[in-house]
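Checklist before submission:
- one chain only
- standard amino acids only
- sequence pasted in full

Submission:
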Amino acid sequence: MAGVRAGVVVVGSFNVDHVWRATRLARPGETLAGTYSTGPGGKGFNQAIAARRAGAEVRFVCALGDDAGGALARELAAADGIDLHAQASTAPTGTAGIYTDDAGRNSIVIGPGANAALDALFVEGQAHALAGAAVVLAQLESPRAAVLAALAQARRAGALAMLNPAPADAVVDAELLACCDLLTPNESEFAALLAAHGHAVIADEAVAALDDGALHALCRALLPRGTVVVTLGGAGCFVSHAEPTRFGDAAACARIQAHPARVVDTTGAGDAFNGALAAAIALQPQRGFGTQLRFASRYAAASTEAPGAALAMPRLRADA
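Returned file contents:
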């Protein structure tokens, strides 16, 4: 895919997922019988696959080990038509232990491996990969310096700088926030960001219950000059704009209902939403942001109807 002008560039992690399924999640000290499977994952790769299967041209910037996991990443990227730019690492390719239950809930433990080696110099050297991109999307399973470099490169290239501040325990400082045009936390991540930046202390489960005015004010305090989309699980999502006209919206804030789904496994649903939203923005910039969010919600819902992470991403085009 050399020379292709990508609509979406994703900078982030690739993991080999090890998944155990049981009727319920184990309690501390408890052993349960279940089933085991393995496959590709990592927030960055999940989002890259989602954006690609939603119809966008995608480049993925990551770090990989010289091992079977790295070979798997290259093979799967090629199979889906993703232009892969990987920094070589002596560390093993990243891994994740994922535990899921019959209700579709999950708990996850990450072994960063090569993901922790992705450095700012490598990302800065990918300026050619960002050329022509509409959206640059990063998460926080990669080092902070690499993420900051990606967002800064996006700004210089005239692309939309989009940050999914996940996982919730990642540190998101003021400099990272200042580089964001679009921030997409879930309830836990939003509550953690508010507390970390001295704005409010709110329980995760209380976020969705806030009225629109209060939620909008908190979003504006967190990211005064950008757009915030807070994903709210079964309650849908909430969007807060500093400049609604930039995204073709008339209102400064709005709620979007969740799309119904027959849930099998919620692993990767947030990544599905982010990748699909990036694709929708890149492919249909003339459409209103509400339309793009509804597509992302529908895409994320569809991703929960099959087990797995990256390979569960549906082929559902944003420009269809």
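Reviewer check: Confidence is low (pLDDT under 50) at residues 1-5.
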